[in-house]
Amino acid sequence: MERTLVLLKPDSVQRRLVGRILARLEDKGFSIIAMKMMRVSRELARRHYAEHVAKDWYPELEAFVTGAPLVAAIVEGPQAIRVVREMVGATNGLNAAPGSIRGDFSSSRQMNLVHASDGPAAAHREIGTFFQTDEIHSYEATIRPWLRAPTED
Ligand code: CDP
Ligand code: MG
User: Fold this and answer.
1) Which of 3, 8, 97, 144 sits 20 to 30 Å CA-CA off 75?
2) Is 52 one of the catalytic residues?
3) pLDDT tens, 68-79?
4) Residues of the chain with pLDDT under 50
């Protein structure tokens, strides 16, 4: 089982796509184990996007993610980090494959609706950046026997 951080960026909220995007992840079989709506501060944006802070496009990205509320969630399931990234699609919505979230709903490089952690180290760090331990709700998914065979992990 893996956990990954998913952000439904402000464009998802403004475009009323939160429910449809979360539904795709739930439909796949993933569990939402933490979720909150929040306004991201500049400090939090810089911590989350530390690898991009020096890029020339960072100020615009920061204005975008801090400019209106977003929804942060932790998504749990088998190989969740890789699978959610693939469901999200390529960074630029114009390049993202049809069938992916960005491919189906975004025509932008910046306003691409969703963030998903890109590996185990990033997932661990980003979950810690957005959530306190007592905001994370581990629970038994009673549907589990109908999602995967007992011999699958
Ligand atoms: O989100 P992802 O990992 O696919 O892309 P990234 O290269 O790590 O960039 C992080 C985010 O910065 C993207 O999701 C875009 O919202 C934004 N971005 C941008 O505004 N302009 C760019 N040239 C590249 C990325
Ligand atoms: Mg990235």
Assistant:
1) 97
2) no
3) 999 999 999 999
4) none
Q: Which two tokens stand for residue 80?
A: 């969740």
Write out residues with Cβ below 6 Å of ligand 1. 52, 57, 60-61, 91, 109-110, 112, 115, 118
**pLDDT reported for residue 72:** 99
Residue 80's nearest CA partner among 48, 32, 128, 114 is 32
Tell me the ligand closest to 113's alpha carbon: 1
Tens-place pLDDT, residues 131-146: 999 999 999 999 999 9
Residues whose CB is less than 8 angstroms from the CB of residue 150 and which lie 6 or more positions away in sequence, other chains included: none
pTM above 0.70, yes or no: yes
- Domains, the chain: 2-146 (3.30.70.141)
Q: Which two tokens stand for residue 72?
A: 């942060």
For position 153, what pLDDT does the model report?
A: 74
Whole-angstrom distance, CA of residue 56 vs CA of residue 67: 18
Residue among 115, 124, 17 at smallest CA distance from 72: 115
